[in-house]
Amino acid sequence: MNTFSHTLLLTGGSGGIGKAAAGLFASRGWLVYELSRHGSSYEGVTHIDCDVSSPEQVRQAVAEVMRLTDHIDVVISNAGMGISGPVEFTPVVEAKRQFDVNFFGTFYLVQAVLPALRKQMYGRIIFTSSVAAVLSVPYQSLYSASKAALNAMALALANEVRPYHIQVSCLMPGDVATGFTSSRVKGTAGADVYPHAEKAVEAMERDEQNGMSAKKMAKALWRIATSRFPAPLYVGGWQYKIFCFLDRILPKRLVNRIEGMMYS
Question: What is the pTM of this model?
Fold first, then answer.
């Protein structure tokens, strides 16, 4: 059993926002358990092999964490992947893989950790969502849908677990410069039907690589994790807060049309 006062369980901590968050929490005295397929342990961070798209692996990984510690203060579901391409030509297997990792990976994690959090009668669960959950991106439709599903689950889950003093939040980052861009699965089918698709994805990826740092989003996760009264949804990046505000006050048809023009 560990003697640390605070414990974090994090998925997707082998790179990008997750790795930055794991390092930040560890540097501030937290014991961090990092679940991913390709990570490694280092000071303050214990890596456990886990493919979040496998409910069995998630259950086994969480059981291992509970064997090593007597409590979990914060759970961050950060593992994710992206695909791009027109909906019409997206292979079903890739669409399912998108949801298997982004949505069901979080779903499996929540199911695995809730018994322990309910028993201890406290805890905080944070999903790494995306601004794309609110402002759906053309040719990244399945990714946007998977993140919108996370937001919906988080809002409902927050009401379900409130009697057990468990709080649930989503962080919705905008463009962040990480290895996520290079690992995106790009669909090229249908280029003759949707000639703007390639250009739109290239523009989106330029925005990502010129985006915020992973460390900035790690600090945002820290603030959510340590806030006394966390909100259900947070937008990462001041400019994206403006975009999301405009989405609330302007006609949806106008906002969607403007976004379409940005990627045409």
Answer: 0.93
